[in-house]
Amino acid sequence: MNERNKDALRGVVLDAHAVFTVREFCSVCDVDQPLIQTMVEEGVIEPLPDRGQLTFHGEALLRARRALRLVDDLGLNWPGAALALDLLERLERLESIANR
């Protein structure tokens, strides 16, 4: 078990539309800023449009945490995690349409 997973019962409750600075984002995800930059460059997460500083919405935070689990638990690389997340989100959208 890696350092990020040592506190398995820790949770985060947030509004998906909340806005986080890169420092807050790093704190909640328990990662450093270069890793956040890697996730942005690899298409895992997208920052909000230019606000003078790097900021993210709550949905990006949820996506980043899922990506970290895919990389840590399944050994995916960042492009693979981005692709897996895109496919999972597409599947979730299709299931929600089918269940209406």
Please characterize this protein's 3D structure.
The chain has 100 residues and is mainly α. It has a single domain (15-98), classed as Multidrug-efflux Transporter Regulator, Chain: A, Domain 2 (Orthogonal Bundle), CATH 1.10.1660. It is 55% helix and 6% strand. It contains four helices and two strands, in the order E-H-H-E-H-H. Strands 1-2 form a two-stranded antiparallel ribbon. Helix 3 (58-74) crosses helix 4. The chain is globular, with a radius of gyration of 14 Å.
SSE topology:
Layout: E1 19-21, H1 22-29, H2 33-41, E2 55-57, H3 58-74, H4 78-98
Antiparallel strand pairs: 1-2
Helix pairs in contact: 3-4
DSSP strand count: 2
Major sheet: 2 strands, antiparallel
Binned strand content? 5-15%
CATH topology: Multidrug-efflux Transporter Regulator, Chain: A, Domain 2
Main structural class: mainly alpha
Number of helices: 4
The CATH architecture comes to Orthogonal Bundle
Q: So what's the overall shape?
A: globular
Q: Look at the structure and give the mean pLDDT.
A: 87
Query: What's the N-to-C terminus distance?
Result: 39 Å
Gyration radius, to the nearest Å? 14 Å
Low-confidence stretches: none
Order of helices and strands: EHHEHH
Structural domain count: 1
Q: Helix share of residues?
A: 55-70%
| Strands ordered across the widest β-sheet | 1-2
**Class, according to the CATH hierarchy?**
Mainly Alpha
Oligomer: single chain
